[in-house]
Design brief:
Chain B: It holds the Pfam family Glyco_trans_1_4. The complex is a heterodimer. Chain A has 6 helices and no strands. By secondary structure, chain A is mainly alpha-helical. In chain A, helix 1 (about 5-60) runs antiparallel to helix 2 (about 65-80) and helix 1 packs antiparallel against helix 5. Chain A is rod-shaped. By secondary structure, chain B is of the alpha/beta class. Helix content of chain B is about 40%, strand content about 20%. In chain B, the strands form 4 sheets. In chain B, strands 3-2-1-6-8-9-10 form a 7-stranded parallel sheet, sandwiched between helices. In chain B, strands 13-12-11-14-15-16 form a 6-stranded parallel sheet, with helices on both faces. The chains are: A mainly alpha, B alpha/beta. The interface between A and B is medium-sized, with 25 and 21 residues.
Amino acid sequence: MPDWIVDAVLSIALAIVLALYVSWRATRLDRLHVRVETARAALDAALVRRVAVTLELAASRLLDPATSLLLAAAAQRARTADADTREFAESDLSRALRAAVDQPGFAAGLDGRGDVRAELESAAAKVGYARNFYNDAVAQARTARRALLVRALRLAGRAPLPGFFEIDDAPPGR
Amino acid sequence: MRIGIVCPYTWNVPGGVQQHIRDLAEALIGFGHHVSVITPADDDADLPPYAVSAGRAVPVPYNGSVARLAFGFLSASRVRRWIHEGRFDVLHVHEPAAPSLGLLACWAADGPIVGTFHASYERSRVLSATAPILRSALEKITGRIAVSEAARTTLVEHLGGDAVLIPNGVATARYASAEPLPGWPGGGALGFLGRMDEPRKGLQVLLRAFEILGRERPELRLLVAGPGDTADVLARVPAELRSRVVVLGLVSEEDKVRAYHSVDVFVAPNIGGESFGIVLTEAMSAGAPILASDIEAFDRVLRGGRAGALFPAGDVGALAAAAGALLDDPARRARLSAEARAAVRAYDWSSVARDVVRVYETVTVDAGVVIAADREG
């Protein structure tokens, strides 16, 4: 066999292997982006749920009017915050919930409505979990996008670089 | 919810991970969820109705010891079929970084996957070196749980990323009631459970306190259980008190529960090195009045002394004085017992399983069901 055929076959084989590798890397990156989006949806759902439970508690007449007002105001601010102010507003809601729930006599004040407290506890815990999972996904996607191959071949396409979601989400009642 | 749980180690071999999965699965079933566990098992193994065998695990050297692991194409295809037929809402993989079923399940599935990391290593070259191979499988895990701070640190250092902390549970019901061992507690009894030859467990502190207490109180006896050399323990007790120190050595699970119910005061004299205090939570579940050293972990579990009395760690005189005061005050012992039973509920499997369900609910938002991946990797 002439040398040029051997060379050609080898180059084609190499090109196929390279193409497969690049396609695998692109698939992996795509999967990471999907994971970020799914985690973001879960985080938004958890935050919305926490606002709803807080508003429900504030409207329930189970608490004194001052605590109710405090909670309703914090929940309302979190609900209407835009992208720039959301992290501050959600942190403030965490702090307002802690101030309300951790005050002496809170559990006794709920007067047998343990279900409201359990729901609030669950909603607050889920915000913590969802944020941890979202930031974990973001960190992995960002690391993958920093790779030389990904940058050189623009494998990320036009997908925006995902950002971390940083808030104070320490739950009440701990 | 339909939950698929993947166990990496042989079901019928005793181990922390297997016990964790068994307790979790049973708590979830108790909540009304559908649970299927896939696990390596010996051919003649007696599996509970919710468990499915993935075949035998093979002993191989891994990370410095010999582990029984399930790997290879046969195991992979069994896991894939189980995923395909299970139609799970969420897949819960345990120890996904070990070369066993957990890793195979990550490989073979797409959809919401929760991973629980159990092991903690000081430093593992193996784990760091294999991280790139693990990466693409571990990237599929949408929610990560660590069972301890140590496990979380191991994960962060070796594999990167983060995890939420949900500790192991205690099956409090298993300890709640039992017959005392024959003849106990008699005219006053102190108890100890733990490794007898491990200085950090503090048996030597208790033995020296018993020298003081035993001389003051001719009826008082000491019950000691745990792994270690019995003769070695007795040799450390003065001859005239030796007949009142009963060393059981390593006991069965059933006798352990009975031992907790056989003493007036359960003593946890640990000097340090305890991150959680599983023995303490077992004693609390049994409602034993507890006297424990004031190390940080115990102080937290015992609610700053409300669910059990505390003494300065390593202080023989303080231990003797506090134990004497408790022995003379049955009303206080009853109060501590009731407080302990109430406080330990926070560590019960039902609380832990409730947190795990919250994780499931978080990762399944908008995520569809778990499907067998059309291509690995």
